[in-house]
Amino acid sequence: MYGEEEFISSDDLVNVRLVGGHSRCAGRVEVHHRGQWGTVCDVGWDLADAAVRLVGGSRCSGRLEILHDQTWMSVCDAVFDQQDAEVVCRELDCGAPVQVLGAAAFGKGDTQMWTQEIQCRGNESQIHLCPTSPSHENNCSHDSDVLLVCTEIINVRLINGNSPCSGTVELFHRGQWGTVCNVGWDLADAAVVCRELDCGEPVDALSDAHVGLGLGPVWMNNALCAGSESTLKKCGSVIWGFQSVCQSKSAGVICSGVRLVGGSRCSGRLEILHDQTWMSVCDAVFDQQDAEVVCREL
């Protein structure tokens, strides 16, 4: 049976290693189970985590940091150019670079500085695959941190719903929109979709009996989201990344379209999503009955 071996239970997560790679964050996956290291079947295996993140902005914009020898390092703008930016945005699944900045728009870093010249051609899949060489730039400081803005491609959408924040989940992969099987689909999975679409909190995780059948291939079968992931593509799956067949129905979500800001999950300043813009609510137009609906919805 294909796809079985790539399932990793939460108990096994601390017993995973990467071997044969060019850094500690790349290589062949091995899992320690029953006293022995074994490999993971590559059927449906996709989307390894990157060894770059962008700090201080959004998922696809911020101050660039690179993981080197188990240490996160800021990058000096004197050693970074447009080709390097193209690789970073691609590695983060964020499309193309819009702007490379050299000022502290996202705040100054407090990490060590990466000062080697990065010499990407621009077509590499990861920044660690690019050649490097010593730089003649000796006055790098956190005033010259690289700040990067990428286009942030939308990789998930909701269709057939009665609002922009509800509907059948579709995932963009390999140039095509496809569906997510609702086997194992729950509120943790829905929470990731609502967060990725900036639609507030999850209200319900649905099957297509409620929201309509999706079209295209099934890209994800039995999603394994913890609920804290920034995007659905970062979630695990029993079968992921190829045109599988779902014997059940397509997954769907209803997101709240409301949120409470500046407090906790259940307290704070009320904001409502309208025409893709979060808007505060005037207390003159809001009463106890309205509050009961918001609290129930959240």
UniProtKB/TrEMBL annotation:
Annotated GO CC locations: membrane
Highest taxon of source: Eukaryota
InterPro entries per the UniProt record, alphabetical: SRCR, SRCR-like_dom_sf
Repeat listed as a keyword: yes
UniProt KW keywords: Disulfide bond, Repeat, Signal
Residue ranges that the Swiss-Prot or TrEMBL entry lists as coiled coil: none
Residue ranges constituting the SRCR domain according to the UniProt record: 16-151, 156-256, 258-298
Pfam families: SRCR (PF00530)
Protein name in UniProt: DMBT1-like protein
Gene name linked to the record: LOC113068635
